[in-house]
Amino acid sequence: MGNDPDRALANLRGAVEAAAAEAGLPLTALKDATAFIGLAGMNVARDEARLRAALPYARIHADDDRPACVVGALGEGVAGWLLAIGTGTIVAATDGTAYRYVGSWGFHLADQGSGAWLGRGALDFALQCHDRVLPHSDLTRALLADFGDDPEALVSFSLTAQPGDYAAFAPKVIAAAEAGDRHAQALMQEGAAYYLRALKALDFAPGDPLCLLGGIGPHYARYLPEDHLSGLIAARGTALDGAFHLVCKAAAEEVLP
């Protein structure tokens, strides 16, 4: 459940309580219910017992957030490949039954090409430009201006910044890349190169069904080879849809003789 499991549990219980209240149900109405809970950073062996103790459900099927995202985007039992790119990344392949993944090791060691990665990389470029190691661009000037043209303020920001804080700069990177900014385009091209390697590791071939998802994912289409986009498909639904399918499947299996 990430770096702050206590906070994650509190937020999750708050969401369950709010949903029950909106539906006009007491929490006791969930005592016979089955839940599927998919959280980024979930370690089932470590976290499932804490979920069971903290939440009012009779049965909890816990996993990380990737299966629900894949099923929601591609559909239950459907084969395909997925690049779900937002603050973090999910790079996945499925034959409709089993799932395979690349990456998803978290911001500090992975999440290449993600919103957080783009934001951090752009700030790195801004400091290099301040040091005259690289020539400035419109993007790097704008980013330094966000910190009052004070590189020490940028460094102070970095000492406590979380992935979401870095990802807040990703829209500026994407817009700058579309406008032809050299540093922004270099970041997008580097991210796309990583995704090409990741897809290859998952045995993707041009023409295979590929879904680009998330706030960042579709923006990589212009940086991927045309043949990789020949099988491009739209997402069928959301991770919430995927979680609903998975919990229905789990509940049905529970009642089978």
How does this structure look, described?
- Residues 7-196 form the ATPase BadF/BadG/BcrA/BcrD type domain.
- InterPro entries: ATPase_BadF, ATPase_NBD, Euk-type_GlcNAc_Kinase.
- Pfam families: BcrAD_BadFG.
- The structure is a single chain.
- This protein has helices spanning 5-22, 44-54, 66-74, 115-130, 138-146, 151-160, 163-167, 170-178, 182-201, 239-255; strands spanning 34-38, 59-63, 80-85, 89-94, 99-102, 210-213, 232-233.
- It is globular.
- It has a domain at 5-64.
- A five-stranded mixed sheet has the order 5-4-3-6-7, sandwiched between helices. A two-stranded parallel ribbon has the order 1-2.
- With 257 residues, it is α/β, with parallel strands linked by helices.
- The protein is 48% helix and 12% strand.
Distance between the termini: 33 Å
The tally of beta strands, per DSSP, is: 7
Q: Numbering strands along the chain, what is their spatial order in the largest sheet?
A: 5-4-3-6-7
Helix residue percentage: 40-55%
User: Main β-sheet, in a few words?
Assistant: 5 strands, mixed
Beta-strand share of residues: 5-15%
Rg (CA only) = 21 Å
Query: Would you tell me the overall average pLDDT?
Result: 91
The number of helical elements comes to 10
- Identify low-pLDDT runs: none
Order of helical and strand elements: HEHEHEEEHHHHHHEEH
